[in-house]
Amino acid sequence: MGYLRETLKILSIISIAAVIVISIFGILAVMDANDFKEKFPEEPNLFLLVEEGDILAGAKNLMHPTEPEPITSEEAAVYQQLLDSSGYDSIVGKNYKVFLVSMDTFDSLAEGEIADSGFTKEDAVEALHNDDLRAWLIDKSLEQAEIPDEYHDRVMQQLEEEIPSEQDIRASMFFLLLGGASQESGPAFIIKEFKNGNIEVYPETMLFRFIKIVPESAVDMIESRIQT
User: Fold this and answer.
1) I need a surface site. Which of 9, 32, 103, 137 has the fewest CB within 10 A?
2) How far apart are CA 118 and CA 125, in angstroms?
């Protein structure tokens, strides 16, 4: 039975080592979490909505005290080239964090209007796949407003002058989906979708590595305590 005792000793040593490693891992994760809490609202960050490798929308500095800023068409083209070549380090650049959000993130978002916006999930998805987004939004606005035929041309001209850029509209639809999903799924929405593999974070520091191994039940418990 000597071999059994040796096996038990080995297992015991492994278990102790595992506890030590997890403890160190947890401490580093807490340190990284504090760093994230301090820097994320202040340092540059980037959110990109991606579907099958194509960037559909993007915004800079979400969750900052100031309004988030949509990426420009030029920036979108550069990020797309970098994404195509897996140049994640270059995408990060001077950003503190980059979040690549898959369209699959919003699969569970309920049908119907999102947050009294006048737009549904289907509208947002349709818009993000439209090649002439400004024209789509003008048509949608005219349809919702039920403009009489005699005023149609005048209102259309006014809308064409006032309608924002395509990237602005794309970012707005992205915000709409994010806001609707967060409202529906709770404050841990982004964490859960990261665990599900629908959101990628670069650089993936210790906090996010730790989140991957935390059971979702623990995330649910923390979320419920936050909400009470």
Assistant:
1) 9
2) 14
> Is residue 145 a contact partner of residue 217, using CB atoms and an 8 Å limit?
no
Question: In the structure encoding, which two tokens stand for residue 207, read together?
Answer: 């906090």
Helix (H) / strand (E) containing 20: helix 2-39
pLDDT band at 118 (very low <50, low <70, confident <90, very high): confident
Q: Which residue has the tokens 């059994």?
A: 4
Which span out of 58-62, 100-104, 105-109, 216-220 was modeled with the highest average pLDDT? 100-104
Residue 94: phi and psi, rounded to 5, are -90, 0
Strand partners, 55: 50
Listing DSSP states for 151-204 in one string gives HHHHHHHHHHHH---HHHHHHHHHHHHHHHHHHHH-TTHHHHHHHTTSEEEES-
Residue predicted with more confidence, 32 or 218: 32
| 83 contact partners, CB below 8 Å, separation of at least 6 | 48, 50, 53, 55, 91, 100
How is the chain split into domains, by residue range?
1-39, 44-227
Q: Where are the extended beta strands (E) located within the chain?
A: 45-51, 54-60, 69-70, 97-102, 199-202
Residues pairing with 101 in the sheet: 49, 199
Q: How far apart are CA 65 and CA 29, in angstroms?
A: 25
Residues shown for the chain: 228
